[in-house]
Write a structure and sequence with these properties.
By secondary structure, the chain is mainly beta. It is built from no helices and eleven strands. It starts with a strand and ends with a strand.
Length: 120
Amino acid sequence: QVQLQESGPGLVKPSQTLSLTCIVSGTSITTSYYYWSWIRKPPGKGLEWIGHIAYNGNPNYSPSLRSRTSISRDTSKNQFTLQLSSVTPEDTGVYYCARDDPVDLQYDYWGQGTQVTVSS
């Protein structure tokens, strides 16, 4: 069974870097042709795609967040990491990691989500 679990600090100060890790079990993050995504939900708003890292290690980012986003992976630990720099209170929200199936065009597995608050 595929499972994803987010981990990281729940509180980040403005201007600092938010760092979250998604630990994957039940499958390898190098398995073709899946993408491993970060998605967030700000309070009172809809889901926002942040970016993904593909099975081959290639990242892709939302244009609106590209300048502040980095997604990397550690295949030995079967996990991938989000770093979002220069955060502001507008980056507050629930952050999810998810597997993107490009064949079925759906996110078929999700983590439970983790609340991140940006505040001094």
